[in-house]
Amino acid sequence: MTKIASTLGLLLIGNLILSTPGFAQVAGSTTVLGVTVIEARQLALGWSVKKSIFGREVYNDAGVSVGKIEDVIISPEKNVTYFIVNVGGFIGIGGHNIAIPISQIVEQSGKIVIPGATKESIRNLPQFDYASDTAKRDAFVKSAENDLTIAREKANELQKKSALLSGEAKTKMDQKYALLQVEIQVVEKKMGEMKRAGTTRWQEFENDLNVDISHLKLTLANIDR
């Protein structure tokens, strides 16, 4: 793994092994924040996006510049990082942006290299355009509504199963249904608030809604256990 890949990989790690002191724990909970002392030292040896990546030339195997890094983007799933490279311009004027997965980037003699790339092949890649706030909101709403649909279908399934049961088994099934319904209603309420806020304020509700959706997914995952 290259220094670039390993550094950005560390930045994306969600479940870090806390082997030494030097991390913060939220009072009254088991939530751990930050990185360990060892991890911080490893990060310090890596590439700083601001200092060492933005504006850097990108080369092919032959040492020919094929573009310049304009941005680094983490996918919505937070599991893939992309370099946004400006290509096809002349002395910094014109051109367009493309997205290159970090897995296709290597470091060679201090240079950022895309193996096998040519100016022509790079220029022919699909153009990358930043999504508008409206597009981001629509994608977020679509994903949340899909999660709600799955949860509602599961709730209907639990109701049907409950109708065929009796005694303690029925009681347990009804409890699962009631718990799932509560989670669904919480997400529906937050979704309604976000939609009423319009396209200019929807991000004020994004974090809270993400938390509620995570709880809903966890409940769904535990339903059949």
TrEMBL record:
Pfam family, one: PRC
Domain PRC-barrel: 52-116
Keywords: Signal
Highest taxon of source: Bacteria
Keyword Transferase assigned: no
Keyword rRNA processing annotated: no
Residues of the signal peptide: 1-24
This protein's name: PRC-barrel domain-containing protein
Organism taxonomic ancestry: Bacteria, Pseudomonadati, Pseudomonadota, Betaproteobacteria, Burkholderiales
